[in-house]
Design brief:
This protein is mainly alpha-helical and 177 residues long. It is 60% helix and 2% strand. The protein is built from four helices and two strands. Helix 3 crosses helix 4.
Amino acid sequence: MASVLGMLEERETSARVRVEGLREEAARLAEVLEAAEIELDRRVIAREELVEALAASAAETTAVTGAETERETAPSPAPVPGSIVPPWREGLPVTVLAPDYQRILDVLDERQPTGQGPLKAKEITVELGLQTTPAKVEGVRSKARRLAERGWLVQETSGMFSAVRRPVPAPDAAPSA
Protein backbone atom coordinates (compact mmCIF):
# COMPACT_ATOMS: atom_id res chain seq x y z
CA MET A 1 0.00 0.00 0.00
CA ALA A 2 2.89 2.32 0.55
CA SER A 3 3.58 2.42 -3.13
CA VAL A 4 0.01 3.51 -3.91
CA LEU A 5 0.26 6.21 -1.26
CA GLY A 6 3.56 7.39 -2.77
CA MET A 7 2.02 7.59 -6.23
CA LEU A 8 -0.84 9.71 -4.88
CA GLU A 9 1.62 12.03 -3.10
CA GLU A 10 3.58 12.48 -6.36
CA ARG A 11 0.39 13.33 -8.23
CA GLU A 12 -0.64 15.76 -5.52
CA THR A 13 2.75 17.45 -5.66
CA SER A 14 2.62 17.82 -9.45
CA ALA A 15 -0.95 19.19 -9.22
CA ARG A 16 0.22 21.65 -6.51
CA VAL A 17 3.09 22.81 -8.77
CA ARG A 18 0.69 23.21 -11.69
CA VAL A 19 -1.81 25.23 -9.58
CA GLU A 20 1.00 27.45 -8.29
CA GLY A 21 2.17 28.11 -11.87
CA LEU A 22 -1.35 28.97 -12.97
CA ARG A 23 -1.77 31.35 -10.01
CA GLU A 24 1.43 33.14 -11.00
CA GLU A 25 0.20 33.32 -14.61
CA ALA A 26 -3.19 34.65 -13.41
CA ALA A 27 -1.47 37.30 -11.27
CA ARG A 28 0.70 38.35 -14.24
CA LEU A 29 -2.37 38.51 -16.51
CA ALA A 30 -4.27 40.52 -13.88
CA GLU A 31 -1.45 43.10 -13.93
CA VAL A 32 -1.50 43.20 -17.74
CA LEU A 33 -5.29 43.52 -17.70
CA GLU A 34 -5.13 46.38 -15.18
CA ALA A 35 -2.57 48.25 -17.32
CA ALA A 36 -4.70 47.74 -20.45
CA GLU A 37 -7.81 49.02 -18.63
CA ILE A 38 -5.94 52.13 -17.49
CA GLU A 39 -4.77 52.77 -21.07
CA LEU A 40 -8.33 52.29 -22.38
CA ASP A 41 -9.72 54.74 -19.81
CA ARG A 42 -7.10 57.34 -20.80
CA ARG A 43 -7.98 56.98 -24.48
CA VAL A 44 -11.73 57.24 -23.82
CA ILE A 45 -11.20 60.40 -21.76
CA ALA A 46 -8.94 61.88 -24.47
CA ARG A 47 -11.54 61.19 -27.18
CA GLU A 48 -14.36 62.68 -25.09
CA GLU A 49 -12.29 65.80 -24.38
CA LEU A 50 -11.45 66.17 -28.07
CA VAL A 51 -15.12 65.83 -29.09
CA GLU A 52 -16.12 68.48 -26.53
CA ALA A 53 -13.36 70.84 -27.67
CA LEU A 54 -14.28 70.40 -31.34
CA ALA A 55 -17.96 70.94 -30.60
CA ALA A 56 -17.20 74.14 -28.71
CA SER A 57 -14.92 75.31 -31.51
CA ALA A 58 -17.52 74.47 -34.16
CA ALA A 59 -20.20 76.32 -32.20
CA GLU A 60 -18.00 79.42 -32.01
CA THR A 61 -17.13 79.18 -35.71
CA THR A 62 -20.78 78.67 -36.65
CA ALA A 63 -21.82 81.67 -34.59
CA VAL A 64 -19.19 83.88 -36.24
CA THR A 65 -19.85 82.49 -39.73
CA GLY A 66 -23.61 82.74 -39.21
CA ALA A 67 -23.34 86.39 -38.28
CA GLU A 68 -21.17 87.09 -41.35
CA THR A 69 -23.52 85.12 -43.60
CA GLU A 70 -26.53 87.04 -42.34
CA ARG A 71 -24.78 90.27 -43.31
CA GLU A 72 -24.15 88.92 -46.78
CA THR A 73 -26.66 86.92 -48.79
CA ALA A 74 -27.95 83.54 -47.72
CA PRO A 75 -25.96 80.69 -49.33
CA SER A 76 -27.69 78.78 -52.10
CA PRO A 77 -28.15 75.05 -51.77
CA ALA A 78 -26.10 73.00 -54.18
CA PRO A 79 -28.07 71.86 -57.20
CA VAL A 80 -28.92 68.20 -57.38
CA PRO A 81 -29.56 66.51 -60.71
CA GLY A 82 -33.29 65.97 -61.06
CA SER A 83 -34.02 68.44 -58.28
CA ILE A 84 -37.08 70.65 -58.17
CA VAL A 85 -37.06 74.13 -59.68
CA PRO A 86 -37.68 76.84 -57.08
CA PRO A 87 -39.80 79.85 -58.04
CA TRP A 88 -37.65 82.70 -59.35
CA ARG A 89 -37.25 85.75 -57.15
CA GLU A 90 -34.95 88.76 -57.27
CA GLY A 91 -31.45 87.87 -56.12
CA LEU A 92 -31.87 84.10 -56.47
CA PRO A 93 -28.80 82.83 -58.37
CA VAL A 94 -29.09 80.48 -61.33
CA THR A 95 -26.75 78.12 -59.47
CA VAL A 96 -29.69 76.83 -57.37
CA LEU A 97 -30.89 75.02 -60.49
CA ALA A 98 -29.71 71.62 -61.67
CA PRO A 99 -27.11 71.77 -64.50
CA ASP A 100 -29.61 70.86 -67.26
CA TYR A 101 -31.84 73.80 -66.31
CA GLN A 102 -28.83 76.13 -66.12
CA ARG A 103 -27.82 75.16 -69.66
CA ILE A 104 -31.31 75.94 -71.00
CA LEU A 105 -31.19 79.37 -69.32
CA ASP A 106 -27.69 79.97 -70.72
CA VAL A 107 -28.89 79.27 -74.27
CA LEU A 108 -31.76 81.75 -73.93
CA ASP A 109 -29.72 84.34 -72.00
CA GLU A 110 -27.14 84.42 -74.83
CA ARG A 111 -29.89 85.37 -77.32
CA GLN A 112 -31.41 88.20 -75.27
CA PRO A 113 -28.62 90.83 -75.60
CA THR A 114 -28.43 90.32 -79.36
CA GLY A 115 -32.16 91.02 -79.73
CA GLN A 116 -32.94 87.58 -81.15
CA GLY A 117 -36.43 86.30 -80.45
CA PRO A 118 -37.67 83.37 -78.43
CA LEU A 119 -36.85 79.74 -79.31
CA LYS A 120 -38.88 76.60 -79.73
CA ALA A 121 -37.94 73.52 -77.69
CA LYS A 122 -36.43 71.88 -80.79
CA GLU A 123 -34.20 74.93 -81.38
CA ILE A 124 -33.08 74.90 -77.75
CA THR A 125 -32.27 71.19 -78.14
CA VAL A 126 -30.07 71.97 -81.16
CA GLU A 127 -28.34 74.83 -79.28
CA LEU A 128 -27.62 72.45 -76.41
CA GLY A 129 -25.91 70.09 -78.86
CA LEU A 130 -28.39 67.28 -78.28
CA GLN A 131 -29.89 65.01 -80.89
CA THR A 132 -33.28 66.20 -82.09
CA THR A 133 -35.03 62.94 -81.34
CA PRO A 134 -38.59 63.31 -80.02
CA ALA A 135 -37.50 62.10 -76.58
CA LYS A 136 -34.74 64.73 -76.28
CA VAL A 137 -36.96 67.55 -77.59
CA GLU A 138 -39.76 66.60 -75.16
CA GLY A 139 -37.28 66.47 -72.29
CA VAL A 140 -36.06 69.99 -73.11
CA ARG A 141 -39.67 71.21 -73.59
CA SER A 142 -40.63 69.75 -70.20
CA LYS A 143 -37.72 71.46 -68.47
CA ALA A 144 -38.38 74.77 -70.25
CA ARG A 145 -42.06 74.63 -69.25
CA ARG A 146 -41.08 73.96 -65.66
CA LEU A 147 -38.74 76.97 -65.77
CA ALA A 148 -41.54 79.09 -67.28
CA GLU A 149 -44.05 77.97 -64.64
CA ARG A 150 -41.65 79.10 -61.93
CA GLY A 151 -40.81 82.45 -63.53
CA TRP A 152 -37.30 81.67 -64.84
CA LEU A 153 -38.48 81.87 -68.48
CA VAL A 154 -41.45 83.21 -70.39
CA GLN A 155 -43.44 80.83 -72.54
CA GLU A 156 -45.17 82.47 -75.49
CA THR A 157 -48.60 81.26 -76.64
CA SER A 158 -46.87 79.77 -79.68
CA GLY A 159 -44.86 77.47 -77.40
CA MET A 160 -41.65 79.46 -77.75
CA PHE A 161 -39.47 80.39 -74.78
CA SER A 162 -37.53 83.54 -73.92
CA ALA A 163 -35.21 84.43 -71.05
CA VAL A 164 -37.21 87.17 -69.36
CA ARG A 165 -37.48 86.51 -65.64
CA ARG A 166 -40.49 87.56 -63.61
CA PRO A 167 -41.49 86.80 -60.03
CA VAL A 168 -44.10 84.10 -59.60
CA PRO A 169 -46.58 84.62 -56.75
CA ALA A 170 -46.86 81.83 -54.23
CA PRO A 171 -50.03 79.73 -54.72
CA ASP A 172 -51.58 80.75 -51.38
CA ALA A 173 -50.25 84.32 -51.25
CA ALA A 174 -52.85 87.05 -51.08
CA PRO A 175 -52.71 89.66 -53.86
CA SER A 176 -50.77 92.74 -52.85
CA ALA A 177 -52.54 96.10 -52.88
